[in-house]
Amino acid sequence: MSVSETVVLLSRKREEEIRAWRRAIHRRPGLGMNVEETASLVAAALESMGLDVRTGIGGTGVVALLGSSGPTVALRADMDALSMREETGLPFASEIEGRMHACGHDAHTAMLLGAAAVLSEGWEGRGRIKFVFQPAEECAPTGGAPAMIADGVLEDPDVGAMAALHVWPGLETGRVGVREGAIMAASDRLDLVVRGRSAHGSMPEEGVDAIVIAAQVVSALQSVVSRSVSASDAAVFSLGTVRGGCRYNVIADEVRLEGTLRSLDARVRAFLPEKIGAVARGVATAMGGDCEVLYERGYPPTVNDGAVVALFRRVAADLLGPAALEEIARPTLGGEDFSFFAEKVPSVFFWLGCRPASADGATFPPLHNARFAPDEAAFPLGTALLAGTALKLLDRLNEEGSL
Ligand SMILES: [Zn+2]
Ligand SMILES: [Zn+2]
Asked: Which residues are in the Peptidase M20 dimerisation domain (predicted)?
């Protein structure tokens, strides 16, 4: 039996277990760094596989190591959920009000546990595999990966290549998407405070209306990307919150705006904050107020390594058939903090189809939706792809010493 047949078979054998892990994690979602419950489930499962497990890495991260010598590759999953109310109606829906695994990180964690189970069964390995479970992926601009890197997750032994996946409702179950180069965007954050001066609502001439200024700032900022970024460069700027005012008949003295800035190109990423600041301040000043602009650099773009992607494609074609592989033409402008790992180590980040063939692509709930429910049939495929990719990367490192 070939390696790929073994991996597929073993992953199928673990299907029930993967589903059970996923459902248990789904019921008890943790937010940001506070994923203790999930982390202890993960650590217990890894220990039961006989792996060398370390907890509390970069806060609440968990790392396990398989194998004792040779080159090392790493597989990573994220463990955190979102602060939103679940509306899936699933029997294993979130038991914690206002928290939900709406980005599929419960599935990522379960699939990686599956890969650890598959690979550790009878491992006679030529090399080592690190299983990295990280908190706080959803916590832009900081994220959870940098703290784990700072805690040495990529060292001792040094990691030569890395892989991770994201469930992708835009793709049918059984399909997998990848691209060389950037697959996800840089994700930065912008906070604006518009300041005016309060007065009685009947006498606006005695104050400076921060709400009217903010309205102009919001409109003006919408032209920055469309007029300053070349049509061939991708970038998007969206404001997510506007907060201001205290009473119906008081001229507001302050309005706070929060937004996100996505880009793929380093040059665009560098000039946009300055441009946005200049426009916001200019408009506010012209109207007699002012505007404070705080720009926080968040996740860098997630950039896939060419050699690792080429190997991954062979694995995916082998495991799922060549037709399953979808070449992603354009990156998405979503952010992903796996990018911090991919900056340090040649990596592949791929999308795992999780929309049942019977579902309507136009109405299937997307990521971050209160009804998001990935197809569980995709999970053994994700496990097989992670395990198969790790083995392929180790083969290459063993044969050639590098990718
Ligand atoms: Zn997310
Ligand atoms: Zn996610």
From this structure: 191-275
Distance 49 CA to ligand 1 centre (A): 29
Residue numbering of the annotated binding site: 103, 105, 138, 166, 368
Catalytic (active-site) positions: 80, 137
- pLDDT tens by residue, 61-111: 999 999 999 999 999 999 999 999 999 999 999 999 999 999 999 999 999
Distance between Cα 138 and ligand 1 center (Å): 6
The environment of the single-atom ion ligand 1, i.e. residues with CB closer than 5 A, is 103
C-beta of residue 169 within 8 angstroms of C-beta of residue 364: yes
Which of 64-79 are b and which e, b meaning 16 or more Cβ less than 10 Å from the residue's Cβ?
Answer: bbbbeeebbbbbbbbb
Pairing of strands 290-299, 186-195: antiparallel
What is the chain's alpha carbon radius of gyration, rounded to the nearest angstrom? 23
* Ligand with the closest atom to the CA of 77: 2
CA nearest 291: which of 215, 222, 238?
215
Ligand 1 midpoint to CA 253 (Å)? 34
Q: Which domains does the chain have, with CATH numbers?
A: 3-185+301-400 (3.40.630.10), 186-298 (3.30.70.360)
Average pLDDT, the chain: 95
The pLDDT-based confidence of 140 (bands split at 50, 70, 90) is confident
Give the whole-angstrom CA distance, residue 114 versus residue 269.
38
CA 28 to chain centre: 19
Cβ atoms of 287 and 208 within 8 Å: the answer is: yes
Higher pLDDT among residues 5 and 360, named by residue: 360
CA of 51 to the centre of ligand 1 (A): 29
CA of 12 to the centre of ligand 2 (A): 24
Which residues carry a binding-site annotation for Mn(2+)? 103, 105, 138, 166, 368
How does pLDDT run across 282-328, given as a tens digit for each residue?
A: 999 999 999 999 999 999 999 999 999 999 999 999 999 999 999 99
In this model, does residue 1 exceed pLDDT 60?
no
Nearest ligand (C-alpha, residue 106): 2
DSSP code string of 73-101? EEEEEE--BBSS------TT--SSTT-B-
For residue 145, with 0-12 CB atoms within 10 Å meaning exposed, 13-18 middle and 19 or more buried, which class applies?
Answer: buried
